[in-house]
Amino acid sequence: MLKLILVPALLLAACGDNLHPDEDQVATGAAGSGSDAPGDTPDAAVLTARFIPFADDCDNHGVRFEAQFGYSDGGAVANPICHYDFADGTSADTCVASHSLPTAQIVRLTVTDPATGAMAVAEDSVIGPEIFDVIVDLSSGLSSSGRPFIAWSARTLYGGAEAGKIQFVDFDPIQDVEILDPEQQIQPTGVVSVNRPGVYTVSVLGSVELDLGGCSKIVSKTIDLTTCITGTH
Fold first, then answer.
1. Which three-class secondary structure string do you get for 111-147?
2. How far apart are CA 184 and CA 76, in angstroms?
3. Residues 205, 51: Cα–Cα separation, whole Å
4. CA geometry: angle at 162 spanning 160 and 166, to 5°?
5. How many secondary structure helices (H) and strands (E) does the chain include?
6. pTM above 0.85, yes or no
7. In 3-state terms, what secondary structure has residue 27?
């Protein structure tokens, strides 16, 4: 799979009235497990948080962020308050947010438990997916038996490089297309005969699988076979 999003180890910080992670926890990104602050017990539950970035929109370098959080003793947060801060100065008050990240940027998540006042912060550098595209070329002609045909050639590009695969090739009107084998419709190249001349639309679905998520795209092109009836193709 291709590398989509740069996700170094998250730095988790737990805080609240008396909650402070020690230096080793912050450096390793380990979930908080206590505090050295006066008055705290060694096994005091600590709120921790992180976010998982997924590909959301390859056309816009979009990333979907999903917050994960909880207490070190397994306790849940009933009504979490999530807040994302992005390097471009915008923010989002939700636990699942989407944002365009064409370049690597620092993303900061703050999760608050309104019941206890405990707070956890996760911060990391993230970059969105590259542009994904599907290139389709069509041609037509007459077979040796005099029947018109459509030929296609398709490829997928991620960040300008060959990557991904063709998932499906569809035709409209499909009732006039002779598909001898369903496997034809998942091939990057192929030829199909048509029962009558006319204007046909060929739609190609391509996709690319990334480290976290992936992207897909449909590209449609039309081809006019009306002149094939005269044998001029």
1. EECCCCCCEEEEEEEECCCCCEEEEEEEEEEECCCCC
2. 51
3. 30
4. 115
5. 1, 16
6. no
7. helix
Ranges of beta strands (E only) in 143-179 are 148-158, 161-162, 165-172, 177-178
* Residue keyed to tokens 């390793």: 28
Return the pLDDT at 171: 96
Nearby residues of 154 by Cβ (< 8 Å), 6 or more positions away:
134, 135, 136, 137, 166, 169, 188, 189, 204, 206, 219
Tokens of 30: 């380990």
d(CA 147, CA 137): 20
pLDDT of residue 145: 81
In terms of C-beta density within 10 A (0-12 exposed, 13-18 middle, 19 or more buried), how is residue 64 classed? middle
Listed residue (72, 74, 77, 82) closest to 14, CA to CA: 72
Q: What average pLDDT values come out for the chain (233 residues) when binned by 10 residues?
A: 39 36 27 36 80 93 96 93 96 97 96 95 96 96 87 96 96 93 93 92 96 93 76 44
Rounded to the nearest angstrom, the gap between the alpha carbon of residue 69 and the centroid of all alpha carbons in its chain is 22
Residues 218, 199: Cα–Cα separation, whole Å: 19
Nearest-angstrom CA–CA distance, 31 and 11: 9
Burial profile 68-85: b = 16 or more Cβ within 10 angstroms, e = fewer: ebbbbeeeebeebebbbb
